[in-house]
């Protein structure tokens, strides 16, 4: 598992090193003829990750989206689309009443038959998943409105890139007055490599979210698309391209099983098929059972976009099918309350269903 994850990280590190080499070379040549970048003093780098930038930068984790922005699987996805806003609440209730909560959720899903036959159909599950996904969207919109009011410091209803850049660097520990001076003088900013990469990435996303007229100003709706690309088709497409760029080793815009599992160059598909490594098994199953919809062993950009779109009917259908595949003990194509209770770890999360086991595995 460590080796597989290591290969995943190495691929990204090699790309980063190459990019940094090219950038540094161009920068050096430019400095010979222009001006020297002005370094910014960091007040206290240990507090630069104090949570303030959470109001600004797009989060890596997006509720009800199958994959994180860094290419890792969303381990809470099944619980997020089954529980919706109740996910946070159910984590706080005593374990001995979780069964009662699941029974209540079961009754609310079972709507097709007015007599409540006691079985959940694929259609009922699909409808429920779509409704729970919508709850996450509404929650993101409410959170975004609050954050936008906080970052729009001059209260003009827009966020300019320079305004964003100032708050971003301040949140990372840079001196606000010096940042303002550098921005006003329109000079180069020398900063920590990680901060520079993050700011450049955010600038690309900022420009993408800036709809016509493109003036480097984001209104509240555009700020939502910037932080939550799942709310915008163009931003969702950009996020998918970013993920594909990180995972697609040969740059052919197609994702193979070996690339998705992050196997080293020269590895064979049979090695993936035979592997018992948890990392490999999870990603292999996700690739074959959910992502590769036509079963040809490749995931195209179109398939990846459909996989990442949480509001897609097909996405909800795939998840409903997976729930049935996981929990349908008698193979009748439906789920009973007993089957859901027997598989509560899948529906509500292992940390609630089997806390002791998770603690052992994590530590």
Automatic annotation (TrEMBL):
Coiled coil: none annotated. Its main location: Golgi. The keyword Cytoplasm does not apply. Keywords: Calcium, Glycoprotein, Golgi apparatus, Metal-binding, Repeat, Signal. SMART domains: EFh. Residues 139-174, 289-314, 315-350 form the EF-hand domain. GO terms for molecular function: calcium ion binding. It comes from the Eukaryota. GO terms for biological process: calcium-ion regulated exocytosis. It is found in: Golgi apparatus lumen. InterPro entries: CAB45_EFh, EF-hand-dom_pair, EF_Hand_1_Ca_BS, EF_hand_dom. The keyword Calcium applies. GO terms for cellular component: endoplasmic reticulum; Golgi lumen. PANTHER family: 45 KDA CALCIUM-BINDING PROTEIN, RETICULOCALBIN. Belongs to the CREC family. This is 45 kDa calcium-binding protein. It comes from Branchiostoma lanceolatum (Common lancelet).
